UniProtKB/TrEMBL annotation:
Protein's recorded name: Protein ECERIFERUM 26-like
GO molecular function, one term: acyltransferase activity, transferring groups other than amino-acyl groups
Superkingdom, taxonomy of origin: Eukaryota
InterPro entries documented for this protein: CAT-like_dom_sf, Plant_Fungal_Acyltransferase
Naturally occurring in which organism (per UniProt): Sesamum latifolium
Xref: PANTHER family: OS02G0653400 PROTEIN, TRICHOTHECENE 3-O-ACETYLTRANSFERASE
Family assignment from sequence similarity: Belongs to the plant acyltransferase family.
Length: 360
């Protein structure tokens, strides 16, 4: 039985089915990385911090639809997860420490949600305030500190508009990857998808085609809309020189926060969660006080208030057609800002350090 919810603009969105996508080959050996997190994890918004991406496409041809795309996505995404199996993994408690977690590539899978909405894509694009409507097109299910091993860290939602257009909504935990690594994965996935389905003699319908398979009963446990609200968070991205020794992570974060407050004329919450990825791929997350004293620094800060440099508008999953609408955001948490420090991805890149400051 399909679940449904009503958007704030009065249009009905229904979930038709839910599937799990796993890597097409078992991951051996398994990969993992450590997460050092606060002891009072349940009192913070850290577990629910995620990055959302929304891509909207017009119908490419008569046979094209979100239902067809979702069926093919199950095949291509499985191939892409072979190369990045941690995205299909889960959180679990480490046996050698009281509070730390780790992400393990146990092939539990990515959740694929198929939905439809009684709204034309053109009408959606013309909405003056798309904040809540966009949030309904990306699915997320909160997970708890007690049993994190049962919750997916990555969701894909394909939504069919009444005109034949469709959207692809991505939700991924910030404990898993940062927005830049995620965008690289999405581009690689798109390349694999287009290679797999570039021939002209493809069958009319994929093997996993929901309208022919019947409605999935696995959607009964979903709580549409309860965890996917798009709170009014904004993000500013800073680029800093790679070789920085004068400030530690907390002071770098505080320096960027001060710059945000000057540029945007706003005040961040008194506390913020600080995500720091170490060179060995382990991640440390802690709650920091906004009252940190910042030393005088001569560091040159270059910042942007858009996600344009991710290049998400170039992602094509439907015969080379580019998205007609791209939106992405980090969710906000009540009374808590968020700072991510992302190490250089290229040794030759002198401006490789990125810091993302997210505030409500």
């Amino acid at each position: 039985m399909a679940l449904s919810t009503t958007l704030n603009n009065g249009y009905k969105l229904s979930v038709a089915g839910v599937q799990t996508v796993v890597p097409t080959k078992p991951t051996d050996p398994r990969q993992s990385f450590r997460l050092t997190v606060p002891q009072n994890l349940s009192s913070t918004g850290i577990l629910q911090r995620r990055f959302h991406v929304l891509l909207c496409y017009n119908k490419a041809r008569d046979e094209d639809s979100g239902w067809v795309l979702a069926g093919r996505i199950k095949e291509s995404l499985g191939r892409a997860l072979e190369e990045h199996p941690l995205l299909a993994g889960r959180l679990r408690r480490r046996g050698d420490s009281g509070g730390d977690l780790e992400v393990v590539s146990n092939d539990s899978g990515v959740r694929l949600v198929e939905a439809s909405v009684e709204l034309k894509l053109a009408d959606f694009l013309e909405l003056k305030d798309k904040v809540d409507a966009e949030a309904e097109l990306v699915f997320w299910e909160d997970f708890t500190e007690d049993n994190p091993q049962f919750s997916p860290l990555f969701f894909v939602q394909v939504t069919n508009f009444s005109c034949g257009g469709y959207s692809i909504g991505i939700s991924c935990s910030l404990l898993l990857v940062d927005p830049f690594l995620l965008s690289n994965f999405l581009k690689r996935w798109a390349d694999l998808h287009n290679t797999m389905f570039s021939t002209t003699d493809l069958p009319e319908f994929p093997a996993f085609y929901l309208p022919k398979l019947g409605k999935s009963g696995s959607s009964a446990g979903l709580q549409m809309g309860s965890n996917a609200r798009k709170n009014a968070a904004q993000s500013v991205i800073f680029k800093l020189p790679k070789k920085i020794s004068e400030l530690d992570d907390k002071n770098l974060a505080a320096l960027c926060i001060n710059e945000v407050e000057r540029e945007v004329a706003t005040k961040m919450a008194s506390n913020f969660s600080l995500f720091v990825k170490a060179p060995n791929e382990d991640t440390k997350v802690e709650i920091c006080s906004r009252q940190l004293e910042v030393s005088e620094s001569t560091i040159s800060l270059s910042c942007a208030r858009t996600w344009d440099e991710l290049g998400l508008e170039s992602i094509c999953l439907n015969e080379g057609k580019k998205a007609v609408h791209v939106s992405c955001w980090i969710n906000s948490a009540v009374d808590e800002g968020c700072v991510m420090i992302i190490p250089p991805s290229d040794e030759k890149n002198s401006m490789g350090l990125k810091i993302i400051v997210t505030f409500s």
